[in-house]
Amino acid sequence: MVGLGGAAAALLFASYVAALDEGARAPALTGRALGGSSVVDLSAHRGSVIVVDFWASWCGPCAEAMPALERLYQQYRAQGLVVIGVSEDDAERNARGFLSQTRVTFPVMLDSDHSVANRYRPATMPSTFVIDRRGVVRHVHSGYRAGDAAALERQIRDLL
Q1: Whole-angstrom Cα distance, residue 1 to residue 95?
Q2: What pairing do the DSSP bridges indicate for beta strands 39-41 and 30-32?
Q3: Of 40, 79, 89, 102, whose Cβ has the fewest other Cβ atoms within 10 Å?
Q4: How many CB atoms lie within 10 A of CB 57?
């Protein structure tokens, strides 16, 4: 698990850097999926509505958001929704531990070197980016609060 000092430093740094803007082209996202040898590659999902969610095992709101993301994925994947989780944990065992408690069926990758986060610049954990079928970021959600799942679902439905 990431120490509180490291987590606080990461959040402090993130607060000085603005998240990727709505209307921007979604940056590349490629990495090995946790729990297997498959590769998560954003470009493989061109033409789909994509939700990219940055999270960490130490993040309480992330644990609240994951079941909502899983529900949306199950409900809309047949219509073209793709959800990709990006763990910002430094250690894979922490991400795996989190996922053993909060199970999801969408692909999750580990970004321990923060190379993907450096391109998306999530402002906080979790940060959720909704990308349209043309690869443009349409919505950015920083954090997770009651009611966010309903707003996210409306945005997804509008893009599908």
Answers
A1: 9
A2: antiparallel
A3: 79
A4: 23
Q: Which residue intervals of 4-147 are DSSP H helices?
A: 4-16, 60-76, 92-101, 115-120
Is 27 in a helix, a strand, or coil? Answer: coil
Quick one: which of 79, 96, 78 has its CA closest to 87? 96
Domain that holds residue 45: 4-159
- What pairs with residue 129 in β-bridges? 52, 140
Task: Give the CATH number of the domain where residue 65 resides.
Answer: 3.40.30.10
Q: What is the pLDDT of residues 106-157, one digit of tens each?
A: 999 999 999 999 999 999 999 999 999 999 999 999 999 988 999 999 999 9
What's the domain count of the chain?
A: 1
61 touches 126 (CB < 8 A):
yes
Q: What is the pTM of this model?
A: 0.87
- The tokens for 76 are 């809309």
Confidence (pLDDT) at 20: 81
Question: Whole-angstrom Cα distance, residue 154 to residue 30?
Answer: 27
Tokens of 27: 């940056």
pLDDT at residue 6 tops 90? no
